[in-house]
Amino acid sequence: MPRIALVTYDPRPEPSKDDDLPVLVRALEEAGAEADAVFWDDAGVDWASYDLAVIRSTWDYSWRAAEFTAWAHKCGTATRLANPAEVVRWNADKRYLGELAAAGVPVVPTRYLAPGDVPDLPADHEYVVKPTSGAGARYAARYTPRQHETAVRHLARLHEEGLTAMVQPYVRAIDTGGERALQFFGGRLLHASRKRAVLSPGTAFDADKVAHPGLEPWTPTPAELAVAERALAAVPDAPELLYARVDLVDGDDGEPRVMELELVEPNLFLFLHPDSVPRVAEAILTAAG
């Protein structure tokens, strides 16, 4: 009987936001495994006692990126970690978008402003400012050129936190076509979903946001699938990925571009795609064997 750790976060005092976790634990147990939902930062967990640790919903990691990547290396030394620690380190910092672009993958154009850099912001189009280490639109906001001073204060706050900022043009097609999330598991397309725009005009960067508004099932186009596969093929050293989510938007030319490549803890949206649960459980059991 394989022992599998499904790695999550400690939500105290609130209930967990991962509705898929108990469903996946149950599916693995019904398939003959011993499955535990465990907190990544629980010092009492014996990671070596598990045949496989699968990062599922460590949704506080972006606040503690250095601590989390150190944990991933420690866990990956004790047992098999999916995805691997080196993938976690690379993907936890969204400067990976520059590497994807250099590899010829179509991505949303992105500039980076580290602490100490001059706050050079667009003067002729709407744009988004967010940290390179973030999740769920944390510390993200959209601005027009007329909101320059507010955006500069946003940058200053990120830099005070020691964070590098990324600046992207606001992709107008999100307002009409939304953002598509293509999920891969066990090396194959699992399912896809579409969500609507997350960032509303005038919403403060430190305000709470709905991470996946208007979520619905989606059938990816051949062009979307091709871009997603190119992005996955460009991950350094071609690691074995148990899971991946490729978030796509349409550029001004109408062609799909990568907004994010989620290889650390992407929400699988199994509640929206219940038929995918057996496939996920099967892929995890195969990886544990």
Summary keywords:
289 residues; four-stranded parallel beta sheet; alpha+beta; single chain; 24% strand; five-stranded antiparallel beta sheet; globular
Description:
With 289 residues, the protein is an alpha+beta fold. The chain is 28% helix and 24% strand. The strands form 3 sheets. A 5-stranded antiparallel sheet has the order 11-10-9-12-13. Helix 1 crosses helix 8 and helix 2 runs antiparallel to helix 3. The termini are close together.
Helices and strands: which structural class? alpha+beta
Largest sheet: 5 strands, antiparallel
Q: What is the arithmetic mean of pLDDT?
A: 94
Poorly predicted runs are none
SSE succession: EHEEHEHHEEEHEHEEEHEEH
Distance between the termini: 10 Å
Helix count equals 8
Number of strands: 13
Placed side by side, the strands forming the largest sheet appear as 11-10-9-12-13
The proportion of residues forming helix, as a percent range, comes to: 25-40%
Radius of gyration: 19 Å
Shape: globular
What portion of the residues fall into strands of 2 or more residues? 15-25%
Task: Give a short overview.
This protein has helices spanning 20-30, 65-78, 85-91, 96-102, 148-160, 174-177, 222-233, 277-288; strands spanning 3-8, 34-39, 52-57, 80-82, 111-113, 127-131, 141-143, 165-169, 179-185, 188-195, 216-217, 243-250, 256-262. It is of the alpha+beta class and 289 residues long.
